[in-house]
Amino acid sequence: MSIEAHPHPASVAGTVDEPTRRLLPAAESGPKLLCTLGPASMDARTIKRLEDSGASLFRINLSHTRVADLAEKIELIQQATSVPICLDTEGAQIRTGDFANGPITLRENSVVKVHGRRVPADDKNFNLYPMESIGLLEPGDFVSIDFNSVLTQVIANDGETSVMRVLRGGLVGQNKGVTVERDIHMPPLTAKDLSAIDVGLRMGIDVFALSFANHGDDVAALRELVGNEAFVISKIESSSGLANLEEIALASNALLIDRGDLSREVPIEVLPQTQKSIIDRAKSFERPVYVATNLLESMVLVPNPTRAEVNDIYNTLLDGADGLVLAAETAIGQYPIQCASMVSKIIRGFQLEERDDGDFYPEDAVSLLTAPHGGRLVHREAEPFDLELIGDLPQLKVDRRDLMDCEQIGYGTYSPLTGFMDRETLDSVLESYRLPDGETWPLPVLLQLRDDTHLRGFSTGERIALTDEDGTVHALLDVTENFEYDLDRLAAQTFGTTNSAHPGVARLMSGPNRFLGGDVTLVRPVPSSHRHYLLTPSQTRFIFTRLGWSQVVGFHTRNAAHRGHEWIQMEALQRTGADGIYINPVAMPEKPGDFLPEAVLLSYQTLLEFGVYPKGRVVLGSFFTYSRYAGPREAVFTALCRKNMGCSHFIVGRDHTGVGSFYSRDANRWLFDNLGDIGITPVFFDAIGYNPESRRYEADRGQGLTMISGTEVRQSLREGRHLPDWFMRDLVQEVLLAEKDGGNPLFNA
Q1: Whole-model pTM?
Q2: Among 557, 576, 638, 644, which one carries the catalytic annotation?
Q3: Which single residue of 280, 350, 395, 737 has CA 20 to 30 Å from 698?
């Protein structure tokens, strides 16, 4: 059963050595998302999540980064992602200096001294950066400070200090933009820029943004430093940049419209048409153009955008922008990942092309959830025409497990499967862990005939009705093959054993060696007392999307909630940085003594109602299936089912879906590793115990833990005794014992 001959290599991401390929015009590869990194996002987990959310370039703003810290930040980003890094220069811009005590307030009609050297800063004195900018000011100059919140006029200047009168007062922050209402010449790069570029080049950076590009010569000055192979983005944010747009564009690889700084020199009322004009002209020069500033400004503080912001982004794309730049939203905002996800979803919506051919659920083109296995979510529910002649169809009585499989096939949980496997598909799955078309699939999904009278009664092309014990039709089967298969071979390859002590083997051997293959159409689901928890993949995807999740950890269990599982769930959220966790217990008990699904769901519902889990990060739903006890094959199968539900990660325990001692400790990890990238990431855990000395939960490394197991939980509840709260929360034990005392069974008889 070796899978070594059937490699499934993970996709290889681009590297920093190919910025031009990564920053292609939209016509070739779709609009780009450029994200600025800062205090809110300068950590490996957030960087990776931003990449997953669609970021194609990470920007370091040198106006807010010390050169002394630059190498460390570049190294952090390069270790976290292969997405290219762009160094964005300070450029030819005057800014306020560092204020010792935070923002200052300038009073209208007051007089203030502005220095070239550093001063602590108050309402009478502050400084500008770079120092030499003071010498460029002349009496009579009007100076706007901090996005036009303050307007001053120069009344005197001795080359080191400029005296200004305040025409409009207001709050002024440190390191804020300053605009002189006169065209003054400044070097295109500051001394800090030169040092930072040197660091970047030594560390392999080859994407650079030139702030305040005023002339083609400014771009040439940067190009001389970084070389012809570098990708240079020139930022248009001044009236000089507008006046010299053609020469700047022709000297650059791309343009970037910084609407914030540009709005200090262009009346905001005409900024929209200015943006359109720049984009149109950039297209005529065959240069991609990106747009920055205030795309999702409200999301700096709140998790959702305004309608106006969404409309602005859509119309910017409609104008022809090749990329969108998030600045404060991802650098200092409270919701950097949500901002990136929102822009990516708007881009997807802009490119929307719905496909719906009836056999698949309509695609949600704007969702960032992982795609269903095989690319589409199978949808095989009966239409009215399927029901017209249903009473005339031959019937086949099948057991509850078969009907559960029919339900999951119909709802797409087993996507890309559309029915029960034929011989060719079964052979392929057993030999290579793949379907005949090459898609990864580890586990047989078979309809084994149980009634000897039907062993040869159904032929290829025949439609039959599948019923429960009472004769109620639950599904239709379009037979494609009626075939025999050697049960010993099937057991050995599926379960790794032919030992009848294995429950999966025993169940298989209890029936004949004949199977029906064919497509399934779901007529009605099997009745269930907890149907409201039985969420279909289309429903879970709807819920996750509405919650704003793009990465979800799936958790599979047959046990009531205990502290070991709680720790695993929260640890998985911490490790992955996912938005939430989907707790998804199996709905059908298999062995005598197993928890009934009602008890398992009650335990988790209790934890949710008492606020044990972090708010907004957990969804509870039941998985209407049964355990095959197929060890590693079933571990991968349950992961793929959660992938179809929208999960990006899946928790895999040491003995996940195993039984007894039939599977080695490393069997699950080995199979996942050998299958490669299957579109959902396993999160592996060993057995969890409690360390009484540290009072912490830890993975078992032989350090003398008190182990936490579902077996002990079941035993204590049967006996009506309480476990310590560190083993299972008192409130969970209380509610389950109350159910037991009230005559409601907790376990399968």
Answers
A1: 0.82
A2: 557
A3: 737
Quick check: 649 and 554 in contact, CB under 8 A?
Answer: yes
Say how many residues make up the chain: 749
If you average pLDDT over residues 44-69, what whole number do you get? 94
363 assigned to some structural domain: no
Contacting residues for 78 by C-beta, under 8 A, at least 6 apart? 16, 85, 203, 204
555-605 pLDDT, tens per residue?
A: 999 899 999 999 999 999 999 999 999 999 998 766 677 889 999 999 999
Is residue 559 part of the annotated active site? The answer reads yes
Per annotation, catalytic residue among 287, 463, 558, 563: 558
Q: Is 558 a catalytic residue?
A: yes
Specify whether 315 is catalytic.
Answer: no
Residues 168-175: what's their mean pLDDT? 91
Does residue 406 sit in the same domain as residue 307? no
| Domain range for 342 | 19-92+187-350
Which whole number is the average pLDDT over 634-652? 97
Q: In what helix (H) or strand (E) does residue 603 lie, and over which residues does it extend? A: helix 597-609
Q: Do residues 393 and 476 lie in contact, with contact meaning Cβ atoms separated by under 8 Å?
A: yes
Which amino acid, residue 107?
R
Q: State the pairing for strand pair 323-326/32-36.
A: parallel
Which of 46, 61, 559, 576 is the catalytic position? 559
Is residue 313 within 8 Å of residue 343, measured between CB atoms? yes
Q: In this structure, is residue 454 part of a structural domain?
A: yes
Determine the Cα–Cα distance for residues 349 and 470; give it in Å rounded to an integer.
Answer: 48
Mind giving me the DSSP string for 118-154?
Answer: -----SSEEEEESGGGGGG--TT-EEEETTTTEEEEE
Q: How many helices (H) and strands (E) does the chain have?
A: 25, 31
User: Per-residue pLDDT for 43 more than 60?
Assistant: yes
Residues 319 and 423 in one domain: no
Model confidence at 453: pLDDT above 70: no
Closest CA to 373 of 640, 734, 9: 640
pLDDT given at position 424: 97
